[in-house]
Amino acid sequence: MAGTEPAYLTVLTTTDSRVKAEALAAGAVSARLAACAQISAPVVSVYRWEDEVRTDEEWQVLFKTTAARYDALESHLLAAHDYDTPEIIATPVLRGSAGYLAWVAGETSGG
After folding, report:
1. What distance lies between CA 36 and its chain's CA centroid?
2. What span, in angstroms and rounded, lies between the C-alpha atoms of 52 and 8?
3. pTM (2 d.p.)
4. Burial of 19 from C-beta contacts in 10 A (0-12 / 13-18 / 19+)
5. Cα radius of gyration rounded to whole Å, the chain
6. 108, 87, 85: which is closest to 12 by C-alpha?
7. The dihedral sign for the CA sequence 44, 18, 86, 8
8. What DSSP designation does 35 have?
9. Is there a cis peptide before residue 6, judged by omega within 30 degrees of 0?
10. C-alpha distances in angstroms, 5 versus 9, 20, 25, 40?
11. Are the beta carbons of 61 and 15 closer than 8 angstroms?
12. In which band, very low, low, confident or very high, does the pLDDT at 6 lie, cut at 50, 70 and 90?
């Protein structure tokens, strides 16, 4: 399978409140851009922004989706997110249970 695009992805973003994390998660799942989203929090992020090192508490949202739905999910997150440059990172799912991956595919296919 060398050179083959992964069929499934996990997509990570962060935001600065639980309410915003839940809204991003619910919006993506409602629009069938992700089968589910898990919210982990709080995490402490240390980063450089506008030439200053900052430390902030954030909530991570991990979306489970298909590669075919990535572009639409990214567009949705960019539009719905209030950060100037939100973290949106996709990681390929190399393996997973057949039943779970079939569920992800079904939930993101439009019903």
Report:
1. 9
2. 36
3. 0.91
4. exposed
5. 15
6. 87
7. positive
8. S
9. no
10. 10, 31, 25, 28
11. yes
12. confident
